[in-house]
Amino acid sequence: MEDLLFELQLALPQVILGVINGAFYALLSLGLAVIFGMLNVINFAHGAQFMLGAFAAWMLLEYLGIGYWPSLVLAPLIVGAIGMAMERLMISRLYKLDHLYGLLLTFGCALVIEGVFRNAFGSSGQRYAPPKMFEALDLELADFFLPGYRVWVLIAATVVCLATWLVIEKTKIGSYLRAATERPELVQAFGINVPLMMTLTYGAGVALAAFAGVLAAPIYSVSPAMGANFIITVFAVVVIGGMGSIAGSIVTGFLLGFVQGIAEVVYPPFSQTVVFVIMAVVLLTRPAGLFGRA
Known about the structure:
mainly alpha, ABC transporter involved in vitamin B12 uptake, BtuC, disordered N terminus, two-stranded antiparallel ribbon
């Protein structure tokens, strides 16, 4: 019994950290699912837009003295506006073409964005300190110390994911978006500005990535490569959950974070590849993903 309790004490920290990583997977894959599900665009610039959110928060603090809470609102709005400009100027021209063109365009945009920030700020990370108020949420579990800020990240990511799902699945705006994806001519005939709706949808998906970036800034080093470190795993999460599935992205993101935490305890080298092993198994047995439609 004592050995079992000791093993649980060792496993608990890694599982909790895995679930917190899963919160970032869920937020980022949610933004990707919104963009693909509504616009049929594979947005490979998502990792760079995540990085832009973190850098926007850092620059607002460094150059304008604007703190964390205003940045949590302003940074997603700024990066979302940049995303809407990208959609209007470039991505909107590719809707009727093969998915490959959108993937190549957004991949090129990601390389340009990361290159600009690497030239401007270098490869080393910038420090962004979390607000002091989160120290009140610090938790001590046996010999494990969990910073209060990570508790806040888990709560904030969960609330935003659920709110986004409710808006898309349970409101009139969400029904318009789904209809505009499937029958844009019919929706346009009812007087709804479909191109504007598409632009706002892309901006919302980008803003979700930027929001995740602001949450990540105090945990991870704010650097040009921070998006690239996440994006491949996040794409795997989206594929496992089902391309375009909102609920699938959220559930799979948290679940795979939990699985990574377990793998870190059982066999640490496997924790970096377990997501891709699961992806291979899912694609072999259910090509549309766990929650996707064929």
